[in-house]
Design goal:
This protein is an alpha/beta fold. It is 40% helix and 18% strand.
Length: 416
Amino acid sequence: MNLPRAAAPRLLELVRHFPVVVVAGARQVGKTTLVRSLFGEEWPMVTLDPTLDVSGARADPDLLLASHPDRLIVDEVQYAPELVAAIKRSVDRDRRPGRFVLTGSQQWSVLRNMAESLAGRAVFFDLHGFTLQEAAGLGARRSWLASWLAAPEAATLGRFVRLPNGPPLNERLFRGTLPEANALPVHLVPDFFGGYRRTYIERDVRLLADVADAQAFGRFLSLAAALTAQEVNSSELGRELGVSPPTARRWLGLLAASYQWLEVPAWSRNTVKRVSARAKGHMVDSGLACASQLLASPAAVDVYPRRGALFESAVVADLTAQASVLSPRPQLWHWRAHQGAELDLLIEWNGVLHPVEVKLHSHPKPADARGTDAFRAAYPRERVAPGLVVAPAGEVRALTPTTWVVPWDAVPAAQP
């Protein structure tokens, strides 16, 4: 499903200025498709394999690089850790920009070592699944988050509209963000995610992280999906499955390292005693979360007891993907005071804090802005932008003097 990606201009710019660009992300988010669409047949490409030594990448990496002295795309680079040192030596001899584009599906192991070995030589770019805007074929347009962060005032918000012909909410949650899941007939989506889960657990996790009990890890993945949009409690996760808290924490790390799990840290300004220190965890792809909970159709999502949590995680994932193409990249936090007040998201960018509440209501009420009001009251000296309530609402509108409602499928009405 080769739709325009918001990451394309950013990736092209990075390749023009750095000798090595590493594109990382979950399996099947479209890394290879994006790279091939941008660089075409002009760049030779080697796709590595976990069992076969393709092009001698492991046995003789220097010979492979010598065969492509000008430029090379290496797909799934994590399968040949021997290439990292060879790329470092090659770049030290020739630091021209645009020499290597590497893709990888995991943050641990090879990619972590690569970040250390290629410091000052490589730049890393995370590719996410489709945003709502990209899935609608409008990925070349500026996102509403970028517009709001650049000018967080009522005039900017007033120019937001809903996506034309946007997907129904339950179907979007059911399909998730992966390109192939968005291209299939809806009744085949569970089959896609069944294969996705099996490959992810039996191949990726077991191969790269030495997880001996695949069935236990599969149950852990389902439990994480059930607990999405909650504060992370490793002891609780471990107790539910009969594994130790350190094992639960390590498995959460594996989910995060393979881009299936996102932890949003707690925001604080030296208020450790008043603000929760726990991160909030989210399944990155709502489609995988639905499949892990055995939801068989969009209609099943409609009656799922934790649909609100699925929706919150989907919005957080969408905003994370929108933020990933900005420079500098915004920092996402959550906030909760011991008195109970909380914010689902606090986006920090350019010295300004942008409060975001996520509500599964088509007609949010002023009471839904209580978290924003509580944060302003608790931190009167902070620079705080107008708050947003992101909801399946029909239009952008003012909710309180300092808070606006923005549809979950918003897009700027006019491009700058």
